[in-house]
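To whoever is on call:

I kicked off a structure prediction for a single chain this morning and the downstream step that reads the tokens threw a length-mismatch warning. I double-checked the sequence; it's 116 residues and nothing unusual in it as far as I can see. Pasting both halves so you can look.
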Amino acid sequence: QVQLVESGGGLVQPGGSLRLSCAASGIIFRIYTMGWYRQGPGKQRELVASITSGGWINYADSVKGRFSISRDNAKNTVYLQMNSLEPEDTAVYYCRGTSSLSYDYWGQGTQVTVSS
């Protein structure tokens, strides 16, 4: 059974930081492209950042310079370090794993709220 379990969300003040984690099980983690997506209130789900099996990284323009994605294949975990958070970053953050064989898995999401 495949599971992607996000953690680390919460309430933070503007300018603060959070680190999200996504622990995967049931997949050969090292061959998957892992991504973080988010869906804000009344908005469509959007890509935040992704990292391929080879370590190639892509960021949405809105988070460049503030967020950092990384992965630990030994722990089957992908991380999203979020700094200088803004109210516009408020959203449910989802982890996604995709493979070249068209496997596609999502986590259940974790809420991030940026507010004073």
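Update from on-call: the warning came from a stale cache, not from the record. Cleared it. Sanity check on the structure: The chain has no helices and eleven strands.
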